[in-house]
Amino acid sequence: MQRFTGLIGIVLILGIAFLFSNNKKRINLRLVASGLALQIIIAILILRVKPVASFFEFLGRGMQKLEGFAKQGADFVYGGIATIGNGNTAVNYATPGAFVFAFNVTSTIILVCVLVAVLYHIGIMQRVVSVIARAMNFVMRVSGAEALSNVASAFLGQVEAQVMIRPYLKGMTRSELLASMSGSLACIAGGILVVYANMGAQAGLDIGPKLIMASLMAAPGALVISKIVFPETVESETMATVKLEVKSPYTNVIDAVSHGAGDGFKIAMNVIAMLIGFIALIALVDWSLLKIGHIFSPNLDLSLDFIFGKAFYPFAWAMGIPTEDVQNAAKLLGQKLTINEFVAFKSMTSRAVPIITEKGLLIISIAICGFANFSSVGMQIGGIGALAPERRADLAKLGLKALLCGTLASYLSATIAGILA
């Protein structure tokens, strides 16, 4: 029955995209069908084909290993600081198993950013992205620029991915711009993905392979949704080509490590600042809502979770999430969209908003794995606008459409995975 519900979810998601389409007659059905097929193939390979599933489980374990390596660097810096260990007693931070959110998250993001910078400098990252983009360009018949951007978003940050297509930004059509923005909002950066996987591991949840699958499925999914919302009506400059023209900005490997560490630290500090700000704001809003609710009834305990649970319930149900998890899944969907995905993952992995079924965990992990939230739209407009100032007006006009597309793309990936699980 839940598989059937998932089919309703796909119809609902595509129907919403169709409803917001600015040119329904020009929707490319071949592109939509091939993109959906590509998502289904990725999900089948990872969920049903044992050798592929084993490979992604290996990658998931590798992500957990990265945290251990990162902690060795953090131990040197923070060793001597007391933290609460497993026995509720004070222990040295360098003690195996000790965990302080800010320290562990910071070190993991820095290490992953260093690795990405090194791979980028020696050309491996560009080659991997280029090969996958060529395949997507061949299957879906999208332009080279938007294929490159969407595939790069599965590995890099939402603005960093656009650097790979910087030479093309000036001449990209508005449909291509929306597709690129949507892909960056639907996917997740490698460093953040590793952090989420390790947050799950700390809570005993094996979500690493699910998150890798989510980011890979998001690339074709974002193209499907964005091309329904804003179909291409003009000829793209890169329709028949996938040519990567990005050279390393680093002098050598040491320079790449230095810049990667610096960039990672900036990202980590931004994550910490956002969490402190948003969680504090949530506490303020929840307190205000509680007081307002009690004005009408002493039993009316209003909160953001209460509101999210009602507003996003239809989406959670339509995606095929088991009945016992629908209410909490709806809360997580609301937190991810209106606050950010970090708060949603923290709520899920800390069991503040628990998901108890394996199927529910699979679907919701994929649905909230992406940068699609209101603050990210501002980051995109500012970041991509700095790369192509002449397109800032177009970026601003497309911002909310990109948020819609990125959100629906994540929901579409989650629904398909839930049907096949």
Taking all Cα atoms into account, the compactness measure Rg is 21 Å
Query: Biggest sheet, open or closed, and with what strands and sense?
Result: 2 strands, antiparallel
**Topology pattern, helix = H, strand = E:** HHHEEHHHHHHHHHHHHHHHH
Count of helical regions: 19
Largest sheet, spatial ordering of strands: 1-2
Total number of strands = 2
Shape: globular
Written description of the protein model:
With 421 residues, the chain is an all-alpha fold. It has one domain (4-420). Helices cover 73% and strands 1% of the residues. It has 19 helices and two strands. It has helices at 2-19, 29-48, 50-78, 101-121, 124-140, 144-153, 160-163, 166-169, 174-186, 190-202, 208-229, 253-296, 304-311, 313-318, 323-338, 341-349, 358-367, 374-387, 392-420, and strands spanning 82-84, 90-92. The chain has a two-stranded antiparallel sheet with strand order 1-2. The two termini are 13 Å apart. 50% of the residues are buried. Keywords: Cell membrane, Membrane, Transmembrane, Transmembrane helix. Its main location: membrane. It holds the Pfam family Nucleos_tra2_C. It is a multi-pass membrane protein.
Per-chain topology:
Elements: H1 2-19, H2 29-48, H3 50-78, E1 82-84, E2 90-92, H4 101-121, H5 124-140, H6 144-153, H7 160-163, H8 166-169, H9 174-186, H10 190-202, H11 208-229, H12 253-296, H13 304-311, H14 313-318, H15 323-338, H16 341-349, H17 358-367, H18 374-387, H19 392-420
Antiparallel strand pairs: 1-2
Helix pairs in contact: 1-11, 1-19, 2-3, 2-11, 2-19, 3-4, 3-10, 3-11, 4-10, 4-12, 5-6, 6-9, 6-11, 9-11, 9-19, 10-11, 10-16, 11-17, 11-19, 13-15, 15-16, 17-19, 18-19
